[in-house]
Amino acid sequence: MSFVEYSEMVQEGDVAIVYLGHESMMAVKVQKNGQTQTRYGAIRHSSDLIGKRYGSKVTCSKGGWVLVLHPTPELWTVNLPHRTQILYTTDIATITMMLELKPGAVVCESGTGSGSLSHAILRTIAPTGHLHTVEFHKQRALEVEQEFREHRVAHLVSVRNQDVCLDGFGVAGVADAVFLDIPNPWEAVGHAHSAMKRHGGRLCSFSPCIEQVQRTCEALAARGFHDLSTLEVLLRVHDVRTVGLPLPDFGPDRTPDPAQTPAPAPAPHASLSIKTTTPPRSMAGHTGYLTFATKPRT
Fold first, then answer.
1. Closest by alpha carbon to 112, among 89, 138, 130?
2. From the CB of residue 84, how many other CB atoms can be counted at a distance below 10 Å?
3. DSSP string of 226-259?
4. Could you tell me if 147 and 118 are in contact, meaning their C-beta atoms sit under 8 angstroms apart?
5. How confident is the model over 87-96, as pLDDT tens digits?
6. Using one digit for the tens of pLDDT, what is the confidence trace for 198-248?
7. Measuring CA to CA, which of 44, 83, 162, 271 is 20 to 30 A from 33?
8. How many degrees, rounded to 5, is the angle at CA 38 between CA 47 and CA 148?
9. Which residues contact residue 293 at a Cβ distance below 8 angstroms, ignoring those fewer than 6 apart?
10. Residue 199 near residue 176 (C-beta atoms within 8 A)
11. Is the peptide bond before 127 cis (omega within 30 degrees of 0)?
């Protein structure tokens, strides 16, 4: 099992996603003689998981069943242990697209946090790209580095425990793209410029407050970055429902054709059932502003 390569069978040491329902999943490290408790009963790793095909239905000890799924960055995002506030798939998809990431790309990231975006980047740049990620907090850096090893993507990523605003990314002139998710991104713009290749590249900064965006844009412009743009991504999921629409009664036809039998009038209060969508009455709103810029060729 690897987060960037698909495997057919569940093996010991894999991180599998146990799917109990659309709003209920969990990440499980598969171990010989291990056991995981669910509301449907226990899952015994040796007999219920190891050797089974990903996507299989597994019957638990109480008779209920779950699905065992191959891990993906999207599934990991909704199941990972939260060490920090994380980015979700709505923003992640926009970031990977706007940074123009592709297989073989070299990316610099700060801060690593819980590794939600990191896994999506690694899947996009595999099998020959590389991620240089910087995390200020030592314990978080150690934990995310261990996760990269368990998820078998450690060969694609270098984790550094340092302050990106003071010490940079530890590389120079190699990055195709840079991502910043720190409280003061304007202080890291110079290091981002140095880390990027001479032929230019793309930069993205995530900030929850517009004042942070303003200072970052000023720093980017001062460094010669161009094509600056700031956006926010809002997800609005519509609810599909069945509604009844009353049929109008226009009264009898006043000019009937005598050669035809008049059509019967609709029954009183007749209605038609149709499926339609309605917007949510409440929705998750602002998460953060995404500021994108392009480094000039030097």
1. 138
2. 15
3. EEEEEE-----PPEEEEEEEEPP---S-SS--TT
4. no
5. 999 999 999 9
6. 999 999 999 999 999 999 999 999 999 999 999 999 888 888 989 888 887
7. 83
8. 75
9. 202, 203, 220, 225, 226, 227, 228, 229
10. no
11. yes
Identify the weakest region by mean pLDDT among 26-40, 188-202, 238-252: 238-252
The pTM (predicted TM-score) of the whole model is 0.87
Of 123, 90, 119, residue with least CA distance to 206: 90
> At 217, which amino acid appears?
C
